[in-house]
Design a protein that fits this description.
The complex is a heterodimer of chains A (108) and B (111).
Chain A: E1 4-7, E2 10-14, E3 19-25, E4 32-37, E5 43-49, E6 52-56, E7 59-64, E8 69-74, E9 83-90, E10 96-98, E11 102-107
Parallel strand pairs in A: 2-11
Antiparallel strand pairs in A: 1-3, 3-8, 4-5, 4-9, 6-7, 7-8, 9-10, 9-11
Chain B: E1 5-7, E2 10-13, E3 19-24, E4 31-37, E5 44-50, E6 53-57, E7 65-68, E8 75-79, E9 88-95, E10 100-102, E11 106-110
Parallel strand pairs in B: 2-11
Antiparallel strand pairs in B: 1-3, 3-8, 4-5, 4-9, 5-6, 7-8, 9-10, 9-11
Classes of the chains: A mainly beta (108), B mainly beta (111).
């Protein structure tokens, strides 16, 4: 079993829909990251969380430390949100352990 | 642009050849990480440096792989005698605290 599990693996939705991507982890962590990867490979950090909730524009990330679970929400989704979203956790020495990613496609 | 640059962006090589990739981190970041990502998977940790010291290596890093960070600034990752299974995206990230900044990656194709 992977230390970091994401669901769903693939998600297709219509423009404007509310999107939720889930991440569960099985180990102690110091922080959890949500990352975005576009075709071509570059990874951009969206959020770093150690507790509670963060919001940036249409993106919201929450974490429940007791339940070892985090969610990434996108409100009013847009085709430009189409990307792979990756959950990653810091475990020792700040190295990251990654989930497999969720491929999100938003259709116009 | 995150401030971390990798070169080259793409590399196609024949099986058995050696390849070298370079990563230039954000200048004040003392930690530098290499990750490998195969198609459809999340990245996996390969190795990391604190300044010029290589502090941890993954079991994924076979003896054909070597990484250096000679002056605590840029880093190189060399793969000797490449195999088709080495085809992947090689990502570099630098940090000073817990937040990581990633380069665009080097996509290696071994034919």
């Amino acid at each position: 079993k992977n230390e970091v599990e994401q669901s769903p693996q693939n998600l297709t939705a219509q423009e404007g829909e509310f999107i939720t991507i889930n991440c569960s982890y099985s180990v102690g962590i110091s922080a959890l990251h949500w990352l975005q990867q576009h075709p071509g490979g570059g990874i951009v950090s969206l959020f770093m969380l150690s507790s509670g909730k963060k919001k940036h524009g249409r993106l919201i990330a929450t974490i429940n430390i007791q339940e070892k679970h985090s969610s990434l929400h996108i409100t009013a989704s847009h085709p430009r949100d189409s990307a792979v979203y990756i959950c990653a956790v810091n475990r020792g020495a700040q190295k990251l352990v990654f989930g497999q990613g969720t491929r999100l496609t938003i259709n116009p | 642009d995150t401030g971390v640059s990798q070169d080259p962006r793409h590399k196609i090589t024949k099986r058995g050849q050696n390849v070298t990739f370079r990563c230039d981190p954000i200048s004040e970041h003392n930690r530098l990480y290499w990750y490998r990502q195969t198609l459809g998977q999340g990245p996996e940790f390969l190795t990391y440096f604190q300044n010029e010291a290589q502090l941890e290596k993954s079991r994924l890093l076979s003896d054909r792989f070597s990484a250096e960070r000679p002056k605590g600034s840029f880093s190189t990752l060399e793969i000797q005698r490449t195999e088709q299974g080495d085809s992947a995206m090689y990502l570099c990230a630098s940090t000073r605290g817990p937040e990581a900044f990633f380069g665009q990656g080097t996509r290696l194709t071994v034919v």
